[in-house]
Amino acid sequence: MSSEVARACALLAGAERVVVFTGAGVSAESGVPTFRGPGGLWKTFRPEQLATPEAFARDPRLVWEWYGWRRDLVAACRPNLAHVALARWMLCRSGVTLVTQNVDDLHERGAAEAALGLLREGRLRAAGARSPDADPEACRAAARDAAAVVPPVRLHGSLFHVRCTRCGERREHRGAVDASAEATLPRCVACGGLLRPDVVWFGEPLPERALEAAFAAAAAAQACLVIGTAGAVQPAAALVDEAAGAGAAVVVVDPGETAYDGMAEVRLLGAAGEVVPAILGGSGA
Ligand code: APR
């Protein structure tokens, strides 16, 4: 184990409260494109055409076509070793708040995988879970319930949630979206209004409660683990400054440069799928 990995292990294991802050890089090895790196979404598409309220007002069909493509892409991806190791670590200890900028659901799916593994090892008590071999479906359901105890704080929303542009109703939505014509776009069952992806577009405010929860966790943390984010987009990116300003030791995991390199106590240059299991597996998970 390198000295840097050992230092990160010790810092994270010794911290009573940890805030974990993730960006697109944590899902890169699952096949989900990042935004600003090579092959990043903003290298191929123009955000002002697809990820702003004006774009949606101008051409909701085009915006839904792009989000439908992203939903299908993410649905075909699997959580990677970083998602599972992080969730396993969170399920095996207390005091960790996960804050994500991502709109994919790989943290939640990674948590269900981690919970299933812990159930199989007999290291997780979950209501209703008998032995995995006796009743695999009940076990998977119990794992999903267990995973629900470590939900991420979502600063930018979710690809798999929608919001009505007329009445504001929000709900989960995983079905296929037919964006072939405006008439086939998803509509609100309550009022018939046009539904939009429940994600935060450029120029829109972040969800108040999520922001409050994220910054409260940062202000109270003794360690801040940053995984796979360039730290380029405010106000989310200020979370790490908040944690560092409150005295937290910052650990950064990224193969490239980030806005946090100067404030990092430990800087681990590498892919999340490789580094995260090494620093969390060694911290007692
Ligand atoms: N493991 C860890 N980090 C990785 C990996 C990997 N395998 N591959 C790439 N990275 C790093 C890149 O080096 C970069 O620092 O992930 C980071 C991705 O940065 P961005 O593409 O800018 O994504 P992110 O920081 O999540 O963007 C923040 O910007 O466009 C908005 O709403 C969007 O939530 C997004 C926000």
Describe this structure in words.
Helix 7 packs across helix 8. By secondary structure, this protein is of the alpha/beta class. Strands 3-2-1-7-8-9 form a six-stranded parallel sheet, sandwiched between helices. Strands 5-4-6 form a three-stranded antiparallel sheet, with helices on one face. A hairpin with a 5-residue loop joins strand 4 and strand 5. The mean pLDDT is 93. The structure holds adenosine-5-diphosphoribose (APR). The site of adenosine-5-diphosphoribose has 24 residues, from helix 2. Adenosine-5-diphosphoribose binds next to helix 2.
Q: Helix and strand layout, with pairings?
A:
Layout: H1 3-14, E1 18-22, H2 25-28, H3 41-44, H4 47-50, H5 53-58, H6 60-75, H7 81-92, E2 96-100, H8 106-120, H9 136-147, E3 153-154, E4 157-164, E5 170-172, E6 195-199, H10 208-220, E7 223-227, H11 238-245, E8 249-253, E9 266-268, H12 272-281
Parallel strand pairs: 1-2, 1-7, 2-3, 7-8, 8-9
Antiparallel strand pairs: 4-5, 4-6
Helix pairs in contact: 1-12, 7-8, 7-12, 8-9, 10-11
The protein binds adenosine-5-diphosphoribose.
